[in-house]
Specification:
heterodimer; A: mainly alpha; B: about 260 residues; alpha+beta; seven-stranded antiparallel sheet; 8 helices
């Protein structure tokens, strides 16, 4: 992985470093949640930064983080496509079920009980178990703090879709949380 | 509003993505609906629990090095010496020691501040969309200030800084950190400055800090029980100037 000579502009590289490298942990975090694999995440982030550098001339801002994420997401989707042909394919919920009102399936809790706190590993596991594309939306909002508009841009969907996906992701996480709590009793 | 609608919109409410009008509608529904109240409470608790849990991953040093090496070398960042690796290690254990002694509360507090800054920037971005900038349009501080009366539990100071190069253009109610918040809107040339004002329990004065988030500058300070965030895409130097002029004018008002 060597950037070709025409790209070899130290001033551009310096600006790119300053603008993009502060988001390395953010990018890596997103890749870990999207790909659920350490080595794949590292490769995806590296590829993302190289692509971003190549296209840095056309970057017009203002927000670097969503711009990087949009590139990273495409890299990760290519990785999904590759895995689909591999035996251990990642399940993906088809887009068409997006509007299904799954949130009505959440169990009613007539007597309100306090939610239990879990350690980081348990919460990560619960998030990792969410199906795509809900996991992506959820992580962009809850862990990366992106606005709905930015999530819509990263995922290339309308803001309304972001809202319904997020509602569904949170409903699924809540169910998983309650189930985990039940099990831990 | 039906439960079905509220169950989707309450997320936008939690995230501060609703305008004040819709937020009130959703809140009104939730108030009268035990089902949605319970859901809302769960979601808030989960969000809170997640905010207080370390869910992020740290990029391995090796990955950082691989990326650095693939970029054209300006000032070459050499592989860290053994010494600096060890220093990193020592720092790591200092952090663990802090966690063990409960000093993590400070870190969490900062995380919370970062989250709020994220929301402030989102609110700023929303305000730039057509028709969202001002609820009351006036360059007269004696029109803008009374407009806030009764709409918030705090009266944001409204100061005309036109003479100092920052034109007051109006005020707006916004939503940050699941609360209504006052925004006083200024313009510098064609650039918008949103000054968000919220009440704080802490009456101590806090000197200004400047941060950059998603390409926007944020100047944050506290005085007389109010938190201020000035957000804009103007340069940090100009935003500092804005903050200083504002603080000077506030002081003059209090003394005069």
């Amino acid at each position: 992985m060597v950037v070709n000579a025409s790209q070899d502009n130290p001033e551009k590289a310096r600006r790119f470093r300053e603008a993009a490298l502060p988001y390395l942990d953010d990018a890596y975090t997103l890749a870990r949640y999207l790909l659920r694999d350490k080595a794949d995440a590292e490769d995806a982030v590296q590829e993302c930064y190289l692509r971003a550098y190549k296209h840095f001339d056309s970057y017009r801002g203002p927000a670097m983080k969503p711009w990087l994420f949009a590139i990273l997401r495409n890299v990760c989707r290519a990785e999904f496509a590759r895995r689909k042909t591999a035996p251990a394919a990642v399940e993906e919920v088809p887009e068409s079920t997006d509007q299904a009102p799954l949130w009505h399936e959440t169990p009613e809790t007539p007597e309100k009980q306090l939610l239990r706190r879990f350690d980081g590993d348990t919460v990560r596991k619960l998030i990792a178990a969410l199906a795509e594309p809900f996991r992506e939306t959820f992580v962009l909002r809850e862990i990366q703090n992106l606005s709905y508009r930015e999530i819509a841009d990263v995922a290339a969907v309308p803001v309304g879709t972001v809202m319904s996906r997020l509602a569904r992701a949170r409903a699924m996480l809540r169910s998983a949380w309650l189930a985990e709590q039940e099990q831990a009793k | 509003m039906t439960c079905e609608e509220a169950e989707v919109l309450l997320h936008a409410l939690i995230d501060g993505e609703l305008d004040a009008g819709h937020a009130r509608e959703v809140e009104a529904h939730i108030e009268g609906c035990a089902h949605c109240t319970a859901l809302m409470q769960d979601y808030r608790e989960i969000s809170q629990a997640m905010a207080e849990t370390e869910l992020r991953y740290k990029a391995p040093l090796e990955l950082r090095r691989r990326i650095e090496q693939a970029l054209p070398q300006g000032q070459v960042q050499t592989a860290p010496s053994r010494r600096s690796v060890l220093r990193g290690f020592a720092l790591g254990s200092a952090v663990s020691a802090m966690a063990a002694t409960g000093l993590f509360a400070i870190v969490l507090h900062n995380d919370d501040e970062q989250r709020i800054e994220g929301e402030i920037v989102s609110a700023h971005l929303r305000s730039l969309q057509a028709g969202h900038l001002t609820d009351v349009i006036s360059t007269d501080q004696h029109t803008v200030k009374p407009w806030f009366n009764g709409k918030l539990d705090v009266s944001p100071p409204v100061i005309d800084l036109t003479a100092q190069g920052f034109t007051l253009i109006g005020g707006r109610l916004d939503y940050v950190n699941t609360r209504e918040i006052g925004a006083v809107v200024y313009k510098r040339r064609q650039h918008v400055i949103n000054l968000f004002v919220a009440q704080t329990a802490d009456t101590e004065r806090r000197a200004a800090t400047m941060t950059t988030l998603q390409g926007f500058n944020i100047r944050r300070w506290s005085d007389h029980g109010l938190n201020y965030w000035a957000v804009s895409d103007i340069g940090a130097d100009e935003l500092s100037e804005f903050g200083e002029k504002f603080e000077t004018a506030m002081k003059a008002n209090k003394e005069g």
